[in-house]
Design a protein that fits this description.
It is a single chain. The chain has a 17-stranded mixed beta sheet, with helices on one face. The protein is mainly β and 368 residues long. The chain has 3 helices and 17 strands. Mean pLDDT is 79; it is low at 362-368.
Length: 368
């Protein structure tokens, strides 16, 4: 056999052996390299079990990662995940779908692993506020492109170690679909002694955002219905929107975002508001009220029923209606409302009514 043929045959066999060896060792290589790559970014306890890639799928039997937060830590465990892809999607740098059969998110307290897991530790000084880095112009930008077209969560569980209430442990399932442009999401949320809710989000970057949170038990009004629209014109961002909130149904969800150990009193009522305004596109949100070019106007109505106080026989009720229009240099406002005072059973309830209007600016005036 000619020498050059033996050379090419030997080279081919070596390449095949290297490819086969790399394929067989790929799960072990990823399990060894991934923790080292994620450690500089604050990820801890990274553990992964990776299957062998197929022509169109890759199975990930197990993935665990944890990172520190300001008031504790968050650990995420994914089991039996599957990546679906095609050759064309891989060449484009994206996957077709990520399916997660089981996910567990554990929000631990600041003293996790000790006898007092919810004991506050020494606080770290807060860094710059997010509002100092975000401008109104960010609302016009496209969503960051995810590495997959769709995400399916078949079963998820979120546990907040130091929380109380019906949503201390939450069961989740849903889908996230990225389209060009925009994002659609539908998530079902269930908790202990909580009938369940469905969150739907439809967004088109730079145009509209719609959020609907709806209870699943009975045909009740939506817990939250939010609709906003964004437009750009002459270096400004024009915002319009409406929101309707059922406070009594919202209370369990507010408890989820509170720091551990804090609770809200039971409230009932509803809130309706609509607004419009224009903001400079490049000014940070924490100072967006300062430029003279800023202009806002809006109207809101709040009906609130406060919990019965100890020794008082009636539930307090508060109704407020307000309007505002203008900017920092001059803004007009008007507010009126009624407060029904809690009274002992032997006395009649008392009402307090008020009306307030005026102008805010260099020459501030208030009229009762």
């Amino acid at each position: 056999m000619p020498r050059h043929r033996r050379f090419w045959r030997t080279l081919f066999l070596c390449l095949c052996a290297l490819s086969l060896g790399g394929y067989l060792l790929l799960p072990d290589i990823v399990a060894f390299v991934l923790p080292a790559l994620l450690a500089p970014h604050g990820y801890q306890q990274v553990r992964i079990q990776l299957g062998y890639p197929g022509w169109h799928t890759l199975h990930i039997p197990y993935l665990h990662v944890q990172w520190e937060l300001e008031h504790g830590s968050l650990s995420v465990t994914l089991e039996h995940s599957r990546l679906d892809y095609t050759l064309s999607s891989l060449l484009a740098g994206r996957l077709e779908q990520l399916t997660i059969a089981s996910a567990a998110l554990m929000l631990h307290g600041p003293g996790h692993g000790t006898a007092r897991p919810c004991q506050e530790t020494a606080t770290v000084p807060d860094g710059p506020s997010l509002l100092t880095r975000v401008t109104a112009g960010h609302a016009l930008q496209q969503w960051p492109e995810l590495p997959w077209h769709s995400l399916v969560l078949e079963q998820g569980r979120l546990v907040r170690e130091c929380a109380t209430g019906p949503l201390r442990e939450v069961r989740l399932s849903g889908t996230f679909q990225q389209r060009d442009p925009g994002l659609d999401a539908a998530v079902t949320i269930e908790g202990q002694d909580h009938a369940g809710s469905r969150l739907e989000v439809t967004s088109t970057p730079g145009q509209t955002l719609q959020v609907i949170l709806q209870g699943l038990a009975t045909p009740t009004p939506p817990i939250i219905r939010l609709h906003t629209q964004v437009q750009s014109s002459a270096g400004k961002v024009a915002l319009t929107g409406t929101v309707n909130v059922d406070l009594s149904q919202l209370m369990p969800f507010l408890a989820v975002v509170l720091p551990p150990g804090r609770e809200l009193p039971p409230l009932a009522g509803d809130l309706q508001a609509h607004w419009q305004g224009s903001l400079p596109a490049t000014v940070p949100l924490d100072t967006a009220w300062q430029p003279p070019a800023t202009f806002v106007s809006g109207e809101a109505a709040l009906t609130l029923k406060l919990p019965q106080a100890v020794g008082l026989g009636a539930t307090c009720a508060l109704t407020i209606h307000g309007e505002v229009s203008g900017n920092r240099l001059e803004a007009t406002y008007r507010s009126d409302g009624t407060l029904t005072q809690c009274s002992p059973p032997q006395f009649a309830a008392q009402e307090i009514r008020w009306e307030l209007h005026g102008t805010l600016g260099t020459d501030t005036q208030h009229v009762w």
